[in-house]
Design goal:
The chain is of the alpha+beta class and 116 residues long. The chain contains three helices and three strands, in the order αβββαα.
Length: 116
């Protein structure tokens, strides 16, 4: 792993803003805002991994506009946000169904009889 080799740095309090791309449109880094200083910082690496929530990852990708990606990285058909939203809503509805199946309570354990 990179952590064992010393080629790894975990940055906390960093809010990802957008993916930086090279002249060929390939990811080469990330711009983020330091939560404490409010300064924008750019970091570069051989590999870029977006591992935020479904909607947050889509937001970062849409913010990643460049000459190669004028509507955001991997959004050439303009469907990135819609697909992410559909996926996220499907996951929520499946969770709600699993949580409430066979009960009279809602997912937050509040039944109709407890609401005044």
């Amino acid at each position: 792993m990179r952590k064992k080799t010393g080629h790894f740095e975990l940055r906390t309090n960093a809010i990802a803003k957008n993916v930086l791309v090279d002249d060929k449109g390939r990811a080469k880094g990330v711009a983020y805002v330091d939560r404490n200083t409010r300064q924008e910082v750019e970091v570069y690496g051989k590999t870029v991994v977006l591992a935020a929530s479904c909607l947050e990852t889509a937001k970062i990708m849409l913010n990643s506009k460049s000459r190669h990606w004028p509507t955001g990285i991997a959004n050439s058909r303009g469907e990135l946000w819609a697909q992410s939203l559909r996926s996220s809503l499907r996951d929520v509805s499946l969770w709600l169904f699993a949580e409430t199946a066979g009960t009279t309570e809602s997912a937050d354990n509040v039944s109709a009889s407890t609401v005044v």
